[in-house]
């Protein structure tokens, strides 16, 4: 079932790609093929594969229950939150918040999770910033 | 003799203090990453790649580090296979068959030591074959024109589709998605913007690192989250047993055969360690027929064969990457992408124009393998203890490393969001049994494929007949057709043979 839905999305995608490629405005071109042909070929092949998949889908063996879906959604929200906070709140704060929530999500007790995340975020900040000299956003705590 | 000179140059590069340190660090981290259940070589290399890039290493050093992680992880994968019955990566699946029964009957130490020695022998044998064959292959490949390259890539994709993953059509979809991702951005021929959706971050193309980390590492975090509900794993004790000389002598031919098999399968574009170890295991079982009742119950031959083969295939898959610019496995596709980020195009000219990279890498692999053997015999207890690290502590670190790595490339939060989005997409692909390696292979080769196709048609003035011009193009076309038909012929042959021996378990989703 999921296979069919996915194949339908792929079919739509291949149509969009072909349409977008064919409507490209190419002002000049020195070679016979140009920028349109390759994406169109790919779109056609993708469409064929999608149709085949729709005709003969695999049996679906993924049956997540509500608890698992909630966990997945939680993890996803955390990662989006991390992406939001990473620059605006800075590495230390963002890593502390998201790290402790992740640790908690994987079954650690809240206090210990927070403690672990605090050590991890502070330790890795100086490790990454000073030792490895990476571009790590300082953010509000260090007065960024 | 010339080869020896080049090899000496390579050792000069690999023995430079910083590179030597990177080999050791890479091998250590690789073993670590490989031994942690769920995080295989491809994730290890993916997570470390942006860090290596951001730290401003010269290309040969970055490659030495990442390659160390790669074959280090092939060593490490066996630890959790043997002690936990959970393969650390796809290439170590076959190792569980005989390794876990051995450790269950109290021979964990013997199994770990024997597999370490087999891994070492497999890698070393494959490296020697690599030294012998890579320069020859690159000499040969210098004559390749655009047509041959188009065919070579089509051949690689065909091998991939027919041998990897749950179904060919799903692999093909993966390749197409990868190739389409590669077309995003400004077209090098005409300067036209393609499929950028008006987002400036895409004008330069989709960032390779963001795709790799998103598809592999982020989707892995989601997968770990999903599996987490299961009970805690029980580590069987290592015990005091150790490998004996008699064991080693008993498996010497097994190791030798498996090394050759692993190397050849590794060289074949697109097929990696999981297939190599399965074929080696199946072959040994067939050779041992009549005396094979211990296979699957803790036979040392069944342990030595897949371990020698998966390490040999890791070295083998470097050969087409370095000489042709066509990666032999998912992980080498990432290494290839890494080289391209440093503006180095692997291919036949690499050995002549930048010998320090090609030979430095090869020499570093010799050093790394010795270091891995040393690390894996006496220090095994350390890695075993690491197996019990709780995911509550591990996952936050993985997530942090991916975010830091991606952010440090452009310093732009957009990449982080795009990475998470790709992670969800990768997770869905996995759940529907699409393997992810084809996507990366398509992404890495997309630009080269299109460029060569357009160049070929420019030469012929738009005549597609050029694709069937010349003996080399014909040979490759025939090889592609053979790769396309071989599995169905094999199945037909097996069905008609009466005592068909199953070559190992099914090769489900392989991530190597």
UniProtKB/TrEMBL annotation, chain A:
Lineage: Bacteria, Pseudomonadati, Pseudomonadota, Gammaproteobacteria, Oceanospirillales
Official protein name in the record: Tripartite tricarboxylate transporter TctB family protein
Parts of the chain that traverse the membrane: 36-55, 76-105
InterPro entries: DUF1468 (IPR009936)
Protein's UniProt keywords contain Membrane: yes
Residues of the DUF1468 domain: 5-137
Pfam families: TctB
Organism: Marinobacterium rhizophilum
Keywords: Membrane, Transmembrane, Transmembrane helix
Domain of life: Bacteria
UniProtKB/TrEMBL annotation, chain B:
Pfam families per UniProt: TctA (PF01970)
Keywords from the UniProt entry: Membrane, Transmembrane, Transmembrane helix
Top-level taxon in the UniProt lineage: Bacteria
Transmembrane segments: 6-33, 45-73, 112-137, 149-166, 173-193, 205-225, 261-281, 322-345, 357-380, 392-410, 416-445, 466-490
Boundaries of every DUF112 domain copy: 20-441
InterPro entries assigned: DUF112_TM (IPR002823)
Name of the protein in its database record: Tripartite tricarboxylate transporter permease
């Amino acid at each position: 079932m999921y296979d069919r839905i996915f194949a339908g999305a792929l079919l739509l995608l291949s149509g969009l790609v072909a349409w977008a490629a064919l409507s490209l405005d190419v002002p000049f071109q020195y070679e016979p093929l140009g920028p349109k042909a390759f994406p169109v070929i790919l779109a056609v092949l993708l469409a064929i594969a999608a149709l085949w998949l729709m005709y003969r889908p695999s049996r679906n063996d993924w049956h997540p229950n509500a608890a698992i879906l909630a966990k997945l959604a939680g993890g996803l929200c955390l990662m989006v939150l991390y992406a939001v906070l990473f620059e605006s709140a800075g590495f230390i704060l963002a890593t502390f918040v998201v790290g402790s929530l992740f640790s908690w999500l994987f079954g650690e007790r809240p206090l210990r999770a927070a403690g672990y995340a605090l050590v991890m975020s502070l330790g890795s900040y100086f490790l990454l910033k000073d030792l490895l000299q990476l571009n790590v956003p300082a953010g509000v705590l260090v007065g960024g | 003799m010339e080869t020896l000179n080049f090899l000496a140059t390579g050792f000069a590069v690999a023995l430079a203090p910083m590179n030597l340190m990177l080999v050791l660090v890479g091998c250590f981290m690789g073993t670590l990453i490989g031994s942690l259940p769920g995080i295989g070589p491809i994730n290890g290399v993916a997570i470390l790649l942006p860090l290596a890039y951001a730290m401003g290493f010269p290309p040969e050093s970055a490659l030495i580090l990442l390659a160390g992680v790669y074959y280090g992880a092939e060593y490490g994968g066996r630890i959790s296979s043997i002690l936990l019955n959970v393969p650390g990566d796809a290439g170590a699946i076959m190792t569980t068959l005989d390794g876990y029964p051995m450790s269950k009957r109290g021979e964990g130490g013997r199994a770990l030591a024997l597999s370490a020695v087999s891994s070492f022998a497999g890698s070393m044998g494959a490296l020697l074959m690599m030294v012998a064959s890579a320069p020859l292959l690159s000499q040969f490949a210098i004559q390749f024109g655009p047509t041959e390259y188009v065919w070579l890539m089509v051949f690689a994709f065909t091998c991939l589709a027919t041998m990897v993953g749950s179904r060919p059509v799903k692999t093909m979809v993966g390749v197409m998605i990868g190739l389409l991702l590669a077309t995003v951005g400004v077209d090098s021929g005409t300067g036209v913007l393609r499929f950028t959706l008006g987002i400036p971050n895409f004008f330069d193309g989709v960032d390779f690192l963001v795709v790799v980390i998103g598809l592999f590492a982020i989707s892995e975090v989601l997968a770990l989250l999903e599996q987490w509900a299961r009970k805690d794993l029980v580590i069987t004790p290592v015990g005091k047993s150790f490998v004996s000389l008699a064991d080693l002598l008993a498996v010497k031919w097994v190791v030798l055969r498996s090394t050759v098999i692993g190397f050849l399968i590794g060289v074949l574009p697109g097929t990696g360690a999981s297939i190599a170890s399965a074929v080696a295991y199946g072959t040994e079982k067939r050779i041992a027929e009549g005396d094979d009742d211990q296979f699957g119950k803790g036979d040392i031959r069944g342990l030595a064969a897949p371990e020698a083969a998966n390490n040999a295939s890791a070295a083998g898959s470097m050969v087409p990457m370095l000489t042709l610019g066509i990666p032999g496995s998912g992980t080498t596709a990432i290494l290839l992408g890494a080289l391209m980020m440093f503006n180095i195009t692997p291919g036949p000219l690499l050995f002549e124009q930048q010998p320090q990279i090609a030979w430095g890498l090869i020499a570093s692999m010799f050093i790394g393998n010795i270091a891995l053997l040393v690390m894996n015999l006496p220090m095994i207890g350390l890695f075993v203890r690491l197996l019990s690290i709780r995911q509550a502590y591990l996952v936050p670190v993985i997530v942090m490393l991916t975010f830091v790595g991606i952010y440090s490339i452009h310093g732009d939060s957009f990449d982080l969001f795009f990475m998470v989005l790709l992670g969800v997409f990768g997770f869905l692909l996995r759940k529907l049994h699409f393997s992810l390696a084809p996507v990366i292979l398509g992404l890495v080769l997309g630009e080269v494929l299109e460029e060569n196709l357009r160049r070929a048609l420019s030469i012929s003035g738009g005549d597609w007949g050029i694709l069937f011009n010349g003996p080399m193009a014909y040979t490759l076309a025939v090889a592609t057709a053979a790769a396309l038909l071989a599995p169905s012929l094999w199945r037909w042959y097996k069905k008609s043979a009466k005592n068909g021996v199953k070559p190992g378990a099914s090769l489900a989703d392989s991530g190597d």
